[in-house]
């Protein structure tokens, strides 16, 4: 589900592939419940959030979409409805009506909870990512040959709707490739075959307790190849893997998908295999370099000139907020890791005077709001915003869900192309 959440957010231009996102140390409190990651992480690139399958990051991405857009994309991907495939007994899965959603539903759907789908539905949605953004009706038989050698076409490609822009679909596929080279599906790596994919690990409901089981789960992996122009999508789910230590999607399902793709390639006279193979030195092959990280220097109390020197010495890009001479605050704090292209924000004005209540509060989501609505949302929390640009908010720092104090500045980046 994270792949589709990412694709939706990129399609809405809420994020770009170059953005970074805060993993909150692997925990996000919402409505007195905690969303957790398997491995705690701080600042990540959007690609890393996908590679390492961060629940926290994707809850935040889903929150930026909001309930209405998240629901509409789920419907557009085909969830909650039969695909119409030529087989009897197809289930439609479960997607609650929008008026039945709780305050956390959109966030949890973003990483795969509170929604039930069939493997065919999910594979069909992934085909939309593979083919340039078009949801197609799945077919069982494409053609057959008569005993006299005549080929009879049974079905033709049937486009249901356009879900994603073609350039977004390609961007997501390229980001998915790192799941195999850097992330949770390294066991799906095939030499000379550029694969994009995503692992899934889903807890099953215990029929007795009616709660999520601690021992029974599904492990899945969906892949497409080659990345630039996919010829095939392969989806496999393993129901209750026998080896508990290897029961996640990367260990139980990814190797099986790799074997299927290898056998298709190795099957004589199967033309689809030729479409999957890519020469080792193909000029279009994608290289994946590890994301370079830097650490923020201490600049609070420095003059503007000293701050510039410190940032340049550390190799960290910077942005000034305000016209003061001295840096009064920096975001993130000293020592925090930064993705190479992420600037440190240097505040040079005293934003809030003495006597302000400094108790902790949770940063609300302002992305998609007008400047007026954002000011109101922050004022309720006792926070004061600094705007960059005007129009609707497209990015924010700190990120939604982060615990902040009233003294911590909030920077809202606005898209000047949107109307107020």
Structure description:
With 420 residues, this protein is of the alpha+beta class. The chain has 3 domains: 1-174, Beta-lactamase (3-Layer(aba) Sandwich); 184-287, no CATH class; 293-415, Trypsin Inhibitor V, Chain A (2-Layer Sandwich). It is 27% helix and 23% strand. It has 11 helices and 21 strands. The protein has helices at 2-11, 46-51, 55-76, 105-109, 119-130, 166-181, 249-252, 254-266, 271-276, 304-314, 371-380; strands at residues 20-22, 27-30, 33-36, 43-45, 134-136, 143-145, 151-153, 159-162, 196-205, 212-225, 232-239, 293-295, 318-321, 329-331, 337-339, 344-347, 360-362, 385-388, 392-397, 403-405, 410-415. The strands form 9 sheets. The chain has a 3-stranded antiparallel sheet, sandwiched between helices. Strand 9 (196-205) and strand 10 form a beta hairpin. Helix 1 (2-11) crosses helix 3 and helix 1 runs antiparallel to helix 6 (166-181). It starts with a helix and ends in a 5-residue tail after the last strand. Mean pLDDT is 84; it is low at 279-291 and 351-357.
